[in-house]
From TrEMBL:
Residues 320-333 have a biased composition (Basic and acidic residues). Pfam families: DNA_processg_A, WHD_DprA. GO terms for biological process: DNA-mediated transformation. Residues 329-379 form the DprA winged helix domain. It comes from Zymobacter palmae. This is DNA processing protein DprA, putative. Belongs to the DprA/Smf family. Residues 314-334 are annotated as: Disordered. InterPro entries: DprA (IPR003488), DprA_WH (IPR041614), DrpA_SLOG (IPR057666), WH-like_DNA-bd_sf (IPR036388). Residues 96-304 form the Smf/DprA SLOG domain.
Length: 399
């Protein structure tokens, strides 16, 4: 291992470190140092301490020695280069760091931002205003519907949907963004070359193919570990202007995300649910603690304002109903809309029953219900979907 004192003495390393700011290899090496707090490095960076002298002097002796080893040709070749090779293997991969032009500025507001982020996909996603959508890994059918419906509407309004590509609500959030052909970012708790969970390999590929982005603070070849996911949540909320919790039990990772969001001065939104439902207990607790209760995507857009404008989802009130002949038709002008109203005129009907009666796919059924829900014609209840009061009147006239 290369020995080093307060200043870099190895000529080869000194030449590499003569730049005024750390480069990608420097940030990567710093991120691998044990027991080095991101908060300290953030402070040094913003204080514009002289690189490398003042930075290295502030490290402990073991940290300084290991950093110098990593920046020596031997350590660089054995440790750093295999990781960097993963980035250079494809043009869509990158190693982001605080001096990278694509580094998300919002992450600088975190008390403990990641030192680096491994990226795979479309970095332009980081330029869009983002909303995080989180919730249970074992949601109800209503939760799956709402996660996808809200993500779709918010994506169509110009928001990037951020989530963790986990089972349940996370996956539905990404699906909603993809169905709207919108931007989505998946922040994962493993190296980007390890898909977790494995059954989401197809979802991961579709996110990449659709111009989405995968992010991780863990280098390639890192397998998922339970301890990584709570830390991953701070990045999901840190990238976002607001966080929507769809369903969550009283003790869940989603409530950790909500707490992080509040600490990061982000807006927190929560969907209410049935009083007896355990998956609604966490959302109700958040609402009691000051989270904004929302029932439609417009509630979020109006609350945030700025880039999100209610007018940008006016067209979302006419979502596609069941597609026939390969053509999408809008619910407000489509005779298929009346078909759904007829199916619901006798009371609440579950999603499974609607799929069976309509002969449509689950995805198309959800799209149709979303269109009618946003148009104020149907509402969701404990047993499924039913006509809202205005739609009931119109439905009565058609019977």
């Amino acid at each position: 291992m290369i020995e080093g004192g307060a200043l870099v003495k190895n000529g080869h390393i000194q030449q590499q470190l003569n730049q005024q700011v750390p480069d990608a290899s420097d940030w990567l090496a710093l991120s691998l140092l044990p027991r080095l707090g991101a908060g300290r490095l953030k402070q040094w960076h913003h204080e514009r301490r002289a690189w490398p002298q003042q930075w290295l002097e502030a490290l402990s002796v073991p940290q300084r020695h290991y950093f110098l080893y990593l920046r020596h040709p031997q350590g660089h070749g054995q440790v750093l280069q295999p990781m960097l090779d993963w980035c250079t293997a494809e043009s869509s991969r990158a190693l982001l760091h605080p001096d990278h032009p694509a580094w998300p500025a919002l992450l600088n507001e975190l008390p403990d931002p990641p030192l680096v982020l491994w990226a795979w996909g479309n970095l332009a996603c980081l330029e869009q205003p983002a909303i995080a959508i989180v919730g249970s890994r074992h949601p109800s059918s209503a939760g799956r519907h709402h996660a996808q419906a809200f993500a779709r509407a918010l994506a169509e309004a110009g928001s990037c949907i951020v989530s963790g590509m986990a089972l349940g609500i996370d996956a539905q959030a990404h699906e909603g963004a993809l169905s709207a052909e919108g931007a989505t970012i998946a922040v994962v708790g493993s190296g980007l070359d390890h898909t977790y969970p494995r059954q989401h390999r197809s979802l991961q590929q579709r996110i990449l193919n659709a111009g989405g982005l995968l992010l991780s603070e863990h280098p390639p070849a890192t397998e998922a570990r339970p301890a990584f996911f709570p830390r991953r949540n701070r990045i999901i909320t840190g990238l976002s202007r607001g966080v929507l919790v769809v369903e969550a039990a009283l003790r869940s990772g989603s409530l950790i995300s909500a707490r992080l969001a509040l600490e990061q001065n982000r807006d927190v939104f929560a969907l209410p649910g049935a009083l007896e439902a355990s998956l609604s207990a966490g959302c109700h607790a958040l609402i009691r603690q000051g989270a904004t209760l929302v029932t439609t995507p417009t509630d979020i857009i109006e609350e945030l304002g700025g880039p999100w404008r209610a007018s940008s989802i006016q067209g979302a009130e006419n979502r596609p109903a069941c597609r026939e002949g390969g053509e999408r038709q809008r619910a407000g002008h489509d005779p298929q809309a009346q078909r759904w109203l007829v199916l619901l005129r006798d009371g609440a009907v579950s999603l499974d029953e609607l799929v069976l009666r309509s002969g449509c796919s689950v995805s198309d059924t959800l799209n149709a219900l979303l269109a009618l829900e946003l148009a104020g014609q149907v509402v969701m209840c404990g047993n499924g979907w039913t006509l809202s009061a205005p739609s009931s009147e119109s439905g009565a006239q058609t019977r």
